[in-house]
Design brief:
The complex is a heterodimer of chains A (about 450) and B (about 260). Chain A is α/β, with parallel strands linked by helices and about 450 residues long. Chain A has 2 domains: about 55 residues, no CATH class; about 325 residues, no CATH class. Helices cover about 20% and strands about 35% of the residues of chain A. In chain A, strands 1, 4, 5, 7, 8, 10, 11, 13, 15, 17, 19 and 21 form a 12-stranded mixed β-sheet that branches. Chain A has a 10-stranded mixed β-sheet with strand order 3-2-6-9-12-14-16-18-20-22. Chain A is globular. Chain B has a domain of about 170 residues: P-loop containing nucleotide triphosphate hydrolases (Rossmann fold). The radius of gyration of chain B is 17 Å and the shape is globular. Chain B has a 6-stranded mixed β-sheet, with helices on both faces. Chain B is of the alpha/beta class and about 260 residues long. Chain B starts with a strand and ends in a 27-residue tail after the last helix. Chain B contains 8 helices and 10 strands. The chains are: A alpha/beta (about 450), B alpha/beta (about 260). Chains A and B meet through helix 7 and helix 8 of A and helix 2 and helix 3 of B.
């Protein structure tokens, strides 16, 4: 076990002393965290987190939160943080216009940020956490801080690159979305993105976070913190479009103040194993959230969602709608919990996860849970896993729609009520085209495997 | 001039013999009414003709101008010129009427908006139906009008109408039957109209009326036969006790003409 043996706030000394420790130096040890450099407080925070992390037991699929996952196949030391920020311009910025601002992130490091002048003039901040006056307060303001965070969030605490901050002061309404494009590139690299969105009292903003990667083996551990103030409105859309060999273990946490609303959308498209833990806390009275996701697993992808609708205050509302399609040998795990705490009388909560299996070899597990500690509530949950509807297929085919096209239309139609309700519609085509491309690949694979048989 | 020829057609559903040797010959422009008691297999015939999964043809043949229809996929049958107006049209969430017509291989091109708007108006449906998910949240009558719009757009050589009259109000029935009658006159469309009621045939003039019982045609005559049936029922033609066949598409909404 590592021990600093002195105050962790003193960060200027080199860490070579630790090479004498008995435990072999892990890729993700305190020294590596130290080497990331930057502001003193940040280096210190990373190192403390890395020390804690080094003492934390790795997750096992025997734990409920990791059940059904390939987590035991993960060898952390196969990956290493990187400072490589090279690459071409990100296409996502061309797709989503007009914008109020953008942030380009490469392997966890900010390479470019812009904010519309008129928006910046109203006090909106779009940039790196270290450049924000409330930096230390902002980082971890929603997810907390190691050692009180989960295993991979602790790892993000220890190896976070440039945390991105979007901060909208009280009363300011930002019309157009702010786009954060994060790209990971390299082989055996690890990227630790962090996005913090703070929406002041009665303010409003829309944020698109697009995560993509190159083709290599990599581990992406993004953490997103959404802090929605009293009577504030946040629209947030995450598009996960990683390469087919990338692992994502993500944590998205939102906290909503009194009378605030958050509309949170997620599109799960890429990744080999892509997990998202999504916590939404209705912290203030009459706060409300709408949470929706569409996901499409193909080939041997595993998509894993763990959602938590946490009703703390009275008269709060949360509506969750997830829809997934699974082709080929893809797998999905959905586990959702609605928690109504003792003070949360008048809670209204819904949770729905629906899956269409496009292949006999696809596999889905869907586990809805309710935990209610107050009697004056309305909660419902629903979960379905079914093959594509034969009657719908026959109806369309009887109109002359060829089988493949009919299947594509039905899948697009199935996703439509999620897509049409997404908090930001500027990326609808981007998402729709990605789903169509996945569907085309699935159908080609189906033809190939039929030919082989 | 086209011919739809059904000879000795036998089919099973879930292992049960339903169709037991159906013979029908329909020519372009002709309207054939197919009437028969509940459970006699009329809907099974309509589904077997379009190749619905689970409806297994075990004997006989169906040809359209000599082409073996049974060898084709459902979509290919539609492209070849067959159309089925379903008794209970299926809701397809999120798929718009516009999408369906754009994707149909039975229609050239993918922008049919102007023509659809004309057909919607003629059948008494709001233009907004173009952009509504197909059959979702529609009344029984609206679904039947919507089926008729698709029939008018796809211009099949032969249309099989499975109780197109059920669910329609009086005005809807008139508009639908007039539109189909027009297609038989102007486009030479042939029709096989499965119905329980002569009201459909007030505007859609039947050339022949067939009585269907226990999985086959047992009597064929002119339009006067329909009137006779309406007055006297099927007792004359149902000699043996028929085990009622569960038709998959019955009873989801009230039939305003039900006796």
């Amino acid at each position: 076990m590592f021990s600093l043996g002195r105050s962790p706030t003193i960060t200027c000394s080199p860490f070579t002393v630790f090479s004498h420790e008995v435990r072999p130096l892990s890729t993700f040890g305190p020294q590596a965290a130290q080497e990331l450099g930057g502001a003193d407080w940040l280096v210190s925070r990373r190192v403390t987190s890395a020390e804690h992390f080094a003492t934390t037991e790795a997750p096992s699929d025997e734990q409920e939160v990791w059940r059904y996952t390939p987590i035991e196949e993960l060898t952390l030391d196969d990956f290493a943080p990187t400072s490589d920020t090279s690459g071409n311009a990100l296409a996502v910025f061309d797709s989503i216009t007009p914008r109020a601002g953008l942030v380009e992130v490469r392997n966890g490091w900010v390479t470019r940020h812009e904010c519309d002048e008129a928006v910046a003039a109203q006090g909106v901040f779009v940039g790196r956490v270290v450049d924000h006056p409330d930096a230390e307060e902002l980082l971890g303001s929603v997810v907390g801080q190691s050692p009180d965070t989960d295993y991979f969030t602790s790892l993000n605490d220890a190896f976070v690159g440039d945390a991105v901050v979007i901060d909208v002061p009280a009363g300011v309404v930002v019309e157009n979305p702010i786009v954060v494009g994060s790209r990971a590139k390299g082989d055996n690299i690890a990227a630790f993105n962090r996005l913090i969105v703070r929406v002041g009292e009665n303010a409003e903003v829309s944020v698109v976070e697009h995560t993509s990667s190159g083709a290599g083996n990599m581990l992406v551990v993004p953490v997103t913190e959404l802090d929605v103030g009293a009577a504030a409105r946040l629209n947030y859309l995450s598009i996960q479009s990683l390469g087919s060999d990338a692992w994502q273990i993500g944590n998205l946490a939102a906290r909503i103040g009194a009378d605030g609303t958050a509309t949170i959308g997620a599109a799960g498209l890429g990744g080999s194993y892509a997990r998202l833990r999504l916590d939404c806390q209705m912290a203030g009275q009459r706060s409300s959230s709408k949470i929706m996701a569409l996901y499409y697993g193909e080939a041997d992808q595993t998509l894993d969602y763990r959602t938590f609708q946490d009703h703390v205050a009275a008269n709060t509302t949360s509506e969750l709608l997830f829809k997934g399609a699974l082709a080929d040998e893809a797998r999905s795990i959905y586990s959702g919990l609605i928690l109504v705490r003792p003070d949360a009388r008048g809670t209204n909560a819904e949770q729905t996860n629906k899956i269409i299996k496009l292949s006999d070899k696809a596999w889905a597990e869907s586990v809805p849970n309710l935990e209610i500690e107050n009697n004056d509530v309305r909660c419902s949950h629903a979960s379905t896993v079914s093959p594509i509807d034969e009657e719908q297929m026959f109806y369309l085919e009887s109109r002359g729609v060829p089988t493949k096209t009919a299947e594509r239309l039905i899948i697009a139609g199935f996703f439509n009520d999620v897509v049409s309700r997404l908090p930001i519609n500027a990326a609808d085509d981007l998402i729709g085209d990605a789903v169509t491309a996945k569907q085309d690949r699935h159908q080609n694979r189906a033809v190939e495997s039929a030919d082989e048989a | 001039m086209s011919d739809l020829v059904i000879e000795g057609l036998c089919a099973t559903v879930g292992g049960t013999d339903i169709l037991k040797g159906v013979d029908l010959h329909i020519r372009s422009g002709e309207v054939h009414a197919l009437m028969g008691p509940n459970g006699s297999g009329k809907s099974t015939l309509s589904h077997a003709l379009l190749g619905r999964p689970g409806y297994e043809v075990t004997g006989g043949s169906v040809t359209l101008d000599g082409e073996d229809i049974l060898a084709l996929t459902t979509a290919e049958r539609a492209s070849a010129g067959l159309f089925l107006a379903m008794q209970r049209p299926t809701e397809v969430p999120g798929v718009l009427l516009r999408d369906v017509l754009a994707a149909s291989s039975a229609l050239d091109g993918d922008d049919h908006d102007d023509a659809v708007l004309v057909e919607l108006e003629r059948i008494g449906l709001d233009p907004a139906f173009l952009d509504r998910p197909i059959n979702a949240d529609l009344s029984g009558g609206e679904k039947k009008r919507n089926e008729t719009v698709q029939l008018a757009m796809l211009r099949p050589k032969f249309a099989i109408l499975d109780e197109i009259d059920s669910g329609l109000d009086v005005d809807g029935l008139r508009l639908v039957s007039q539109r189909i009658e027009e297609a038989t006159n102007n486009d030479d469309m042939g029709v096989l109209a499965i119905t329980h009621f002569t009201r459909l045939l007030a505007e859609l003039k039947a050339d022949k009326v067939h009585i269907f019982s226990a999985g086959k045609v047992v009597e064929t005559a002119g339009p006067e036969l329909a009137d006779e049936l309406e007055a006297e029922g099927y007792a004359r033609w149902v000699t043996e006790t028929e085990a009622p066949v569960k038709e998959s598409n019955t009873g989801l909404y009230d039939d305003p003409f039900a006796i």
